[in-house]
């Protein structure tokens, strides 16, 4: 079962649980969801009416915390940590994992220095252990640790929740990609058509060349035949007579068998 399938089960559980609660009771659900080791998407929980009703109440900080895990990063959390509930270790780990996913959205080569700064990691060994054990092993990213270049080369990264306003940008990006793909397809079709045309022309030239060669061969044959008739008139008959003379000479020169008298 891949990470998307596992998340679907967990999301369904938390959505059903949160839908039956109100007010302060939702705080525990938020903490549990943001601490869960296999949950990395929170937009469905954010869309629950009872969760949205936390806005403007004394528990609104938990709604802000849930939004931070849906869209934010570790460095963004630190900037507003004084206005949000204090994180437990599992939440800290989760937010740092989500930070890697956010960085991987815009760049497939992540320098070690950038990662260490964003994740508050003091050395390369700790960073690589985090990427291997807490990211790649979990299944949220795949990639290569390039120690020579001091970077993490991302091959796959799980998607995060869409930020408010990000949907319009994504539609524009997909629209541009579709237009580019259409133009590329037209260009490929034109090149295929051009290649087919050139192939037909090449075959036509080849056939014409072969026909010209055959004509030349026939002309040479005719020329040689005419020349032979002029230089050696009746050469076919002469050859026949010559063959007869040669046969006669051979017979005359053939040794005769002696007859011995019968004693």
Automatic annotation (TrEMBL):
<feature type="compositionally biased region" description="Basic residues">
    <location>
        <begin position="254"/>
        <end position="263"/>
    </location>
</feature>
<comment type="similarity">
    <text>Belongs to the CSN7/EIF3M family. CSN7 subfamily.</text>
</comment>
<protein>
    <submittedName>
        <fullName>COP9 signalosome complex subunit 7</fullName>
    </submittedName>
</protein>
<feature type="domain" description="PCI">
    <location>
        <begin position="1"/>
        <end position="159"/>
    </location>
</feature>
<dbReference type="InterPro" id="IPR045237">
    <property type="entry name" value="COPS7/eIF3m"/>
</dbReference>
<dbReference type="InterPro" id="IPR000717">
    <property type="entry name" value="PCI_dom"/>
</dbReference>
<keyword id="KW-0736">Signalosome</keyword>
<dbReference type="Pfam" id="PF22061">
    <property type="entry name" value="CSN7_HB_subdom"/>
</dbReference>
<dbReference type="GO" id="GO:0008180">
    <property type="term" value="C:COP9 signalosome"/>
</dbReference>
<dbReference type="Pfam" id="PF01399">
    <property type="entry name" value="PCI"/>
</dbReference>
<feature type="region of interest" description="Disordered">
    <location>
        <begin position="234"/>
        <end position="263"/>
    </location>
</feature>
């Amino acid at each position: 079962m891949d990470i998307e399938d596992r998340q679907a089960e967990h999301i369904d559980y938390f959505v059903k649980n949160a839908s039956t609660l109100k007010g302060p009771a939702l705080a525990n659900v938020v903490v549990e969801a943001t601490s869960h080791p296999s949950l990395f998407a929170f937009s469905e929980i954010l869309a629950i009416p009872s969760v949205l009703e936390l806005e403007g109440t004394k528990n609104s900080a938990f709604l802000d915390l849930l939004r931070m895990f849906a869209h934010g990063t570790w460095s963004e959390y630190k900037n507003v940590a004084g206005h949000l509930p204090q994180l437990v270790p599992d939440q800290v780990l989760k937010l740092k994992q989500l930070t890697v996913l956010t960085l991987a959205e815009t760049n497939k080569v992540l320098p070690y220095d950038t990662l260490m700064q964003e994740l508050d990691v003091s050395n390369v060994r700790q960073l690589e252990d985090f990427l291997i054990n807490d990211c790649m092993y979990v299944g949220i990213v795949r990639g290569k640790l390039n120690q020579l270049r001091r970077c993490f080369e991302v091959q796959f990264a799980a998607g995060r929740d869409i930020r408010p306003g990000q949907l319009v940008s994504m539609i524009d990006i997909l629209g541009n990609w579709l237009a580019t793909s259409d133009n590329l397809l037209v260009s490929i079709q034109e090149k295929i058509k051009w290649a087919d045309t050139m192939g037909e022309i090449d075959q036509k030239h080849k056939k014409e060349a072969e026909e010209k060669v055959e004509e030349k061969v026939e002309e040479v044959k005719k020329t040689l035949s005419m020349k032979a008739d002029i230089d050696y008139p009746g050469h076919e008959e002469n050859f026949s007579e010559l063959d007869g003379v040669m046969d006669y000479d051979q017979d005359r020169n053939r040794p005769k068998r002696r007859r011995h008298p019968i004693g």
